[in-house]
Amino acid sequence: MPRYALHIEYDGGPFCGWQRQSGGLLSVQGAVEQALARLEPKQHTIAAAGRTDAGVHATGQVAHADLTKNWDPFRLSGAINAHLRPHPVSITACARVADDFHARFSARERRYLFRLVTRRAPATHDRGLVWQVSHALDLAAMQAGAAHLIGLHDFTTFRSALCQSASPVKTLDEITITQHAYPNGTEYRFALRARSFLHNQVRSIVGTLERVGAGAWAPAQVATALHAQNRAACGPVCPPQGLYLKGVQYPNDPFKTA
Protein backbone atom coordinates (compact mmCIF):
# COMPACT_ATOMS: atom_id res chain seq x y z
CA MET A 1 0.00 0.00 0.00
CA PRO A 2 1.54 3.33 -0.99
CA ARG A 3 2.12 5.80 1.85
CA TYR A 4 1.59 9.54 1.50
CA ALA A 5 2.69 12.42 3.71
CA LEU A 6 0.17 15.24 4.07
CA HIS A 7 1.11 18.81 4.99
CA ILE A 8 -1.94 20.22 6.76
CA GLU A 9 -3.12 23.58 8.03
CA TYR A 10 -6.27 24.18 10.07
CA ASP A 11 -8.17 26.55 12.28
CA GLY A 12 -8.59 24.59 15.50
CA GLY A 13 -11.58 26.59 16.74
CA PRO A 14 -14.38 24.24 15.60
CA PHE A 15 -12.56 21.05 16.57
CA CYS A 16 -12.17 19.02 19.77
CA GLY A 17 -8.50 18.73 18.83
CA TRP A 18 -6.49 16.72 16.34
CA GLN A 19 -7.25 13.27 17.70
CA ARG A 20 -10.42 11.41 16.73
CA GLN A 21 -12.83 11.18 19.67
CA SER A 22 -15.80 8.98 20.48
CA GLY A 23 -19.26 10.43 20.75
CA GLY A 24 -19.34 12.12 17.37
CA LEU A 25 -17.15 15.07 18.33
CA LEU A 26 -15.54 16.81 15.37
CA SER A 27 -11.77 16.33 15.19
CA VAL A 28 -9.23 17.27 12.55
CA GLN A 29 -8.11 13.66 12.23
CA GLY A 30 -11.71 12.55 11.79
CA ALA A 31 -12.38 15.17 9.13
CA VAL A 32 -9.35 14.09 7.07
CA GLU A 33 -10.15 10.39 7.49
CA GLN A 34 -13.72 10.97 6.35
CA ALA A 35 -12.42 12.81 3.28
CA LEU A 36 -10.10 9.89 2.49
CA ALA A 37 -13.02 7.47 2.83
CA ARG A 38 -14.82 9.39 0.11
CA LEU A 39 -11.87 8.67 -2.19
CA GLU A 40 -11.23 5.07 -1.12
CA PRO A 41 -14.23 3.59 0.71
CA LYS A 42 -12.76 1.89 3.77
CA GLN A 43 -11.80 2.76 7.33
CA HIS A 44 -8.76 5.02 7.36
CA THR A 45 -6.44 5.71 10.28
CA ILE A 46 -3.88 8.46 9.83
CA ALA A 47 -1.04 9.40 12.18
CA ALA A 48 0.16 12.95 12.86
CA ALA A 49 3.35 14.58 14.08
CA GLY A 50 1.53 16.28 16.95
CA ARG A 51 -1.83 15.77 18.67
CA THR A 52 -2.93 19.37 19.06
CA ASP A 53 -5.55 20.17 21.68
CA ALA A 54 -8.99 21.71 21.18
CA GLY A 55 -8.71 25.25 19.83
CA VAL A 56 -5.05 24.91 18.78
CA HIS A 57 -4.25 25.73 15.16
CA ALA A 58 -1.67 24.46 12.68
CA THR A 59 0.10 25.87 9.65
CA GLY A 60 2.55 22.98 9.40
CA GLN A 61 1.00 19.80 10.76
CA VAL A 62 2.19 16.60 9.05
CA ALA A 63 0.30 13.30 8.87
CA HIS A 64 0.71 10.13 6.85
CA ALA A 65 -1.89 7.89 5.24
CA ASP A 66 -1.74 4.47 3.62
CA LEU A 67 -3.90 4.18 0.51
CA THR A 68 -4.67 1.45 -1.98
CA LYS A 69 -4.40 3.41 -5.20
CA ASN A 70 -1.23 4.96 -6.61
CA TRP A 71 -2.29 8.58 -6.53
CA ASP A 72 -0.54 11.49 -8.13
CA PRO A 73 0.26 13.59 -5.00
CA PHE A 74 -0.98 16.85 -6.54
CA ARG A 75 -4.29 15.28 -7.53
CA LEU A 76 -4.61 13.56 -4.16
CA SER A 77 -4.27 16.80 -2.22
CA GLY A 78 -6.88 18.46 -4.43
CA ALA A 79 -9.28 15.54 -4.05
CA ILE A 80 -8.94 15.50 -0.25
CA ASN A 81 -9.49 19.26 -0.10
CA ALA A 82 -12.66 18.94 -2.17
CA HIS A 83 -14.10 16.54 0.42
CA LEU A 84 -12.88 18.55 3.42
CA ARG A 85 -15.18 21.46 2.63
CA PRO A 86 -16.59 23.31 4.52
CA HIS A 87 -14.25 22.42 7.41
CA PRO A 88 -11.39 24.93 7.96
CA VAL A 89 -8.77 22.31 7.07
CA SER A 90 -6.53 22.25 4.01
CA ILE A 91 -3.92 19.90 2.57
CA THR A 92 -1.27 22.33 1.38
CA ALA A 93 1.18 19.72 0.08
CA CYS A 94 1.28 15.98 -0.47
CA ALA A 95 4.17 13.59 -1.20
CA ARG A 96 4.70 9.88 -1.72
CA VAL A 97 7.01 8.60 1.01
CA ALA A 98 8.79 5.40 1.94
CA ASP A 99 6.87 2.71 3.79
CA ASP A 100 8.93 3.31 6.94
CA PHE A 101 8.15 7.03 7.08
CA HIS A 102 6.12 7.89 10.17
CA ALA A 103 4.77 11.39 10.71
CA ARG A 104 5.31 11.18 14.47
CA PHE A 105 8.27 8.88 15.03
CA SER A 106 10.37 10.05 12.07
CA ALA A 107 10.17 13.69 13.16
CA ARG A 108 13.38 15.29 14.41
CA GLU A 109 12.01 18.70 15.41
CA ARG A 110 8.74 20.48 16.03
CA ARG A 111 8.18 24.22 15.94
CA TYR A 112 5.36 26.09 17.66
CA LEU A 113 4.28 29.72 17.46
CA PHE A 114 2.19 31.50 20.07
CA ARG A 115 0.54 34.84 19.31
CA LEU A 116 -0.26 37.16 22.23
CA VAL A 117 -1.89 40.53 21.59
CA THR A 118 -2.12 43.41 24.05
CA ARG A 119 -4.81 46.03 23.47
CA ARG A 120 -8.02 47.19 25.13
CA ALA A 121 -10.38 46.82 22.17
CA PRO A 122 -11.42 43.22 21.45
CA ALA A 123 -9.76 41.57 18.47
CA THR A 124 -12.09 41.21 15.49
CA HIS A 125 -10.21 39.85 12.48
CA ASP A 126 -7.99 37.74 14.76
CA ARG A 127 -10.79 36.63 17.04
CA GLY A 128 -10.07 33.04 18.08
CA LEU A 129 -6.59 33.23 16.56
CA VAL A 130 -4.71 35.09 19.32
CA TRP A 131 -4.67 35.31 23.09
CA GLN A 132 -5.55 38.86 24.06
CA VAL A 133 -4.78 40.72 27.29
CA SER A 134 -5.48 44.37 28.02
CA HIS A 135 -2.36 45.26 30.02
CA ALA A 136 1.13 46.15 28.79
CA LEU A 137 3.96 43.60 28.80
CA ASP A 138 7.71 43.97 29.26
CA LEU A 139 9.47 42.24 26.36
CA ALA A 140 12.94 42.26 27.97
CA ALA A 141 11.62 40.73 31.19
CA MET A 142 9.89 37.91 29.28
CA GLN A 143 13.07 37.25 27.29
CA ALA A 144 15.09 37.09 30.51
CA GLY A 145 12.61 34.66 32.04
CA ALA A 146 12.56 32.47 28.92
CA ALA A 147 16.35 32.15 28.97
CA HIS A 148 16.11 29.96 32.08
CA LEU A 149 14.16 27.34 30.12
CA ILE A 150 16.56 26.78 27.23
CA GLY A 151 18.39 23.45 27.23
CA LEU A 152 17.92 20.06 28.85
CA HIS A 153 15.63 20.16 31.89
CA ASP A 154 13.06 18.26 33.88
CA PHE A 155 9.91 20.14 32.81
CA THR A 156 7.55 18.57 35.36
CA THR A 157 6.42 22.07 36.41
CA PHE A 158 5.32 22.85 32.86
CA ARG A 159 3.69 19.49 32.17
CA SER A 160 -0.03 18.71 32.26
CA ALA A 161 -1.13 16.21 34.88
CA LEU A 162 -2.69 14.29 31.96
CA CYS A 163 0.60 14.10 30.02
CA GLN A 164 1.36 10.56 28.83
CA SER A 165 5.04 11.10 28.01
CA ALA A 166 7.35 8.54 29.60
CA SER A 167 9.69 11.24 30.92
CA PRO A 168 9.38 14.95 31.80
CA VAL A 169 12.98 15.52 30.68
CA LYS A 170 13.13 17.44 27.40
CA THR A 171 15.57 19.64 25.55
CA LEU A 172 14.11 23.00 24.59
CA ASP A 173 16.29 24.30 21.76
CA GLU A 174 14.76 27.74 21.31
CA ILE A 175 12.38 30.29 22.79
CA THR A 176 12.46 33.51 20.81
CA ILE A 177 10.08 36.32 21.77
CA THR A 178 9.59 39.19 19.34
CA GLN A 179 7.43 42.30 19.41
CA HIS A 180 5.37 43.47 16.43
CA ALA A 181 3.11 46.39 15.59
CA TYR A 182 -0.61 45.62 15.89
CA PRO A 183 -3.54 47.99 15.26
CA ASN A 184 -3.96 50.04 18.46
CA GLY A 185 -1.88 47.51 20.35
CA THR A 186 1.15 45.21 20.31
CA GLU A 187 1.62 41.61 19.26
CA TYR A 188 4.17 39.33 20.93
CA ARG A 189 5.21 36.17 19.12
CA PHE A 190 6.75 33.26 21.02
CA ALA A 191 8.65 30.82 18.78
CA LEU A 192 9.55 27.52 20.46
CA ARG A 193 11.59 24.70 18.97
CA ALA A 194 12.35 21.20 20.30
CA ARG A 195 12.44 17.61 19.17
CA SER A 196 9.26 16.98 21.14
CA PHE A 197 7.08 18.71 23.71
CA LEU A 198 5.12 17.61 26.75
CA HIS A 199 1.35 18.00 26.91
CA ASN A 200 0.51 21.67 27.61
CA GLN A 201 4.22 22.55 27.86
CA VAL A 202 4.05 25.48 25.45
CA ARG A 203 0.88 26.94 26.94
CA SER A 204 2.28 26.55 30.46
CA ILE A 205 5.49 28.32 29.47
CA VAL A 206 3.75 31.19 27.68
CA GLY A 207 1.26 31.63 30.52
CA THR A 208 4.11 31.86 33.00
CA LEU A 209 6.11 34.29 30.84
CA GLU A 210 3.04 36.50 30.48
CA ARG A 211 3.06 36.88 34.26
CA VAL A 212 6.70 37.94 34.02
CA GLY A 213 5.86 40.47 31.32
CA ALA A 214 3.00 41.84 33.40
CA GLY A 215 5.34 42.35 36.37
CA ALA A 216 3.64 39.78 38.60
CA TRP A 217 6.72 37.52 38.47
CA ALA A 218 10.40 38.40 38.42
CA PRO A 219 12.34 36.69 35.59
CA ALA A 220 14.34 34.66 38.12
CA GLN A 221 11.11 33.10 39.43
CA VAL A 222 10.88 31.14 36.19
CA ALA A 223 14.06 29.29 37.15
CA THR A 224 12.70 28.72 40.65
CA ALA A 225 9.50 27.25 39.23
CA LEU A 226 11.43 25.04 36.81
CA HIS A 227 13.69 23.64 39.52
CA ALA A 228 10.73 22.98 41.81
CA GLN A 229 9.65 20.17 39.45
CA ASN A 230 6.15 20.67 40.79
CA ARG A 231 3.07 21.47 38.71
CA ALA A 232 1.80 23.73 41.50
CA ALA A 233 4.78 26.04 40.93
CA CYS A 234 3.71 26.81 37.35
CA GLY A 235 2.07 30.04 36.32
CA PRO A 236 -1.39 29.96 34.71
CA VAL A 237 -1.85 27.88 31.57
CA CYS A 238 -2.79 30.25 28.78
CA PRO A 239 -5.77 29.58 26.48
CA PRO A 240 -5.26 27.55 23.31
CA GLN A 241 -6.37 29.97 20.62
CA GLY A 242 -3.00 31.69 20.22
CA LEU A 243 -1.07 28.46 19.66
CA TYR A 244 0.00 27.15 16.24
CA LEU A 245 1.92 24.03 15.25
CA LYS A 246 4.19 25.84 12.82
CA GLY A 247 6.28 23.06 11.32
CA VAL A 248 7.87 19.64 11.63
CA GLN A 249 11.37 18.72 10.49
CA TYR A 250 12.43 15.32 9.17
CA PRO A 251 15.86 13.90 8.18
CA ASN A 252 14.69 14.23 4.56
CA ASP A 253 12.01 16.79 3.80
CA PRO A 254 9.20 14.81 2.16
CA PHE A 255 7.75 17.97 0.59
CA LYS A 256 10.96 19.36 -0.88
CA THR A 257 9.95 18.43 -4.40
CA ALA A 258 6.20 18.24 -3.77
Structure characterization notes:
The protein starts with a strand and ends in a 9-residue tail after the last strand. Helix 3 packs across helix 4 (201-213). The chain contains five helices and ten strands; from the N terminus they run E-H-E-E-H-E-E-E-H-E-E-E-H-H-E. Helices cover 21% and strands 30% of the residues. The chain is of the alpha+beta class and 258 residues long. It is an enzyme of class 5 (isomerase). It holds the Pfam family PseudoU_synth_1.
Per-chain topology:
Elements: E1 3-10, H1 28-39, E2 47-48, E3 57-66, H2 73-84, E4 89-97, E5 109-118, E6 131-133, H3 139-147, E7 151-154, E8 169-182, E9 185-194, H4 201-213, H5 220-228, E10 243-249
Parallel strand pairs: 3-10, 5-6
Antiparallel strand pairs: 1-3, 1-4, 2-3, 5-9, 5-10, 7-8, 8-9
CATH superfamily of the largest domain: Pseudouridine synthase I, catalytic domain, C-terminal subdomain
The overall pLDDT, averaged over residues, is 96
CATH structural architecture of the largest domain:
2-Layer Sandwich
Helix % is 10-25%
Summarize the structure.
The protein has 258 residues and is α+β, with helices and mostly antiparallel strands.
Fill in the keyword field for this structure.
single chain, 258 residues, alpha+beta, Alpha-Beta Plaits, ten-stranded mixed β-sheet, 5 helices, 10 strands, EC 5.4.99.12, tRNA processing
